[in-house]
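Students often ask why we bother encoding 3D structure as a string. The short answer is that it lets us treat folding as translation between two languages. Here is a chain of 186 residues written in the first language.
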Amino acid sequence: MTPAGSVGGDDRLRLFLALDLPAATVDVLEAWGEAHLRGGRIVPRAQLHVTLAFLGSRPASELPAIVGALRAAVGEVDGKIVLEPSRWRETRSVGMLVLDDDAGAATDLAGRLHGWLEALGVYRPESRPWLPHVTVLRFRARPRLSPPLPETGTFVPSDAAAYLSRLHPSGARYEVLERVSLNAGG
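And here it is in the second language, the structure alphabet:
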């Protein structure tokens, strides 16, 4: 965690909110990626997550309210969030595992969170519905892969987190600013 005093109120932070994956799931995804993903840059294990909301560049002074919105949305989670890879999908620059959201709890969390963040004036919801997924590959030219799904089974994230994304020539680097336990929500 980054101490709150290490970021000034006028500083700009590139922020996103996400669900953390269990270590065992990350282990499976890492091995699966090494075996099946070609034609791009595999997302490092420390960066595997399920994005709930990408906020972009925000003033550091907004961070407490953003984390407050995350806590409020998590506090309303009804039951466990249960996810499982259901299909492979490629966009123009990333390969992802789309996740089945067993009872819709992750989708409900994302929807509530988007509402809280929009009310704060820090987020504009996308026009398309939120899609639970894990980005596992980045590329410049679509490799048009059709890998088998990883055998993660179902998994239950234990935390949601506010992340700082720092851009580097080798790719973004993520730092957890604050974690919120999902156990309190259900």
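Translate back mentally: The helical segments are 23-36, 63-75, 105-120. Keep this in mind for the problem set.
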